[in-house]
Each structure stands twice: as C-alpha cells, then as structure tokens.
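pasting for the record
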Amino acid sequence: MTTIGTTLRRRARAAITLAAAAALVGLLPTSSQANVNRYTVQPNSPKPTVCNNSGTIPAGTWIQNKVCGYWVGTAMASSSFDVHQTAASNYHYGRSLGGNNICGWIPPGALGSSPTASVAESCSDATKDNISHRRTIGYNFNAAAHAATDGTAITVNPACTAYYNYYTTNAYSDGSLRDVAGNPGSTVMYRFTTNGSNPAIVVRDSAIGWIFLSRSCVTDWNGITFYNDND
C-alpha cells in the first residue's frame, strides 16, 4: 500500500529531476545565437546611388561607419564579408575580413549572389551604435558634424604612397597603412585624421578615390579649420 509519506517522497524526487533538466537546458546553446551568411566582395562594385554617388569602386567596395557615413576603408575584391543586418537602403552591416577584420557598413550591390559559408555572429548592435559617431573613428574633421559630405583641398607630396586600408580594430582606435592604392595627385580633399599611435589622414584623390595617407605627406594644409564636435 502506498502511504502519504511515500507519495510525498516520489513527488520530491520528480521535482528535483525536473529542476536538473531545466538547468541543463539553460546551459545549451539557444537559437538566438544565430549564424550569419558570408559572401565574397566583388570588384568594380557600384558606389551607393542612395547617397547621391555614381560610378564604381574598382578595388572592391567602401566600408563606412554607417549608412551614407564616413569612409573608413575598402573591403577588397575577393575578400569576405559577413552580413549581420541589411538596412532598408540595402546597405549591409557586418564584418569585413581579409586584412581588415573590422565591423562596418558596405553599400548595396557589392557582394556575390550566393553565400560561401554560414558563420557565427561577430558584430554587435553596441559596436554598430558606437562606430556611428564620428569621434569614434577619428578627429580633426574638415567640417562640423552633418555640414559636409566631401573633403577640403590640401596639398600633398605626389611621390607618397596611398593606401586603401588602415583600421585594425572594431574600436577604430588604431591601425596600420596597408593595401597599396598607388600615388595621389598633388591636391587631395582632406576629411579627417584617424585615431592611433601613428595616425593617418583620410582624403579623396580625384583619380583613385578615398584613400589613407601618412600625415607626413602633407606639404600645405592651406589654412584648413579643424572640427572636433561629435554627431
């Protein structure tokens, strides 16, 4: 015969078993830790018409700090890009691999049509928000926040080497010049100076496009006024 005491003991054991099972489930990976698709960056990608640009980017595609934001590097053709989010404009937020390994935004139309792999997420919403503010990426801007979309003319040594990339961290706090782009013209359009122990300058060359140069390349700042307000 089953007594009241026996019944209570059985119920207690069942409760312990259920609690242990629930704890184990809590330790297992959840579907919220989703994978994202990896794609290959194409050469001659279109410049973003949604931002009033035209033409193509022979080396690959731009990396920007937000949709229609500041240029912060080039996702080189044949490198990989992990798409985490896609905006209504079809800009993609995610990780640029190759020599960069940084999170940022790339314009529409820059990726191959089919994914090459499924990989773990690696670019957070917190990073997305942080890099959207221009003081995260640099200082000494050529204009106040939201006041310009291009640079200001300065003079540089045309024998200097231009580079497509600099940043090496999601914090945009440091980097090193790499991915040779050629030589600039003697006049370029200065936009801002990067963060880092050996900072570079971001300029637009009339032939190459957006590039990084060593600050030592500048021969005349032409009396430019610098701005350090955030946005």
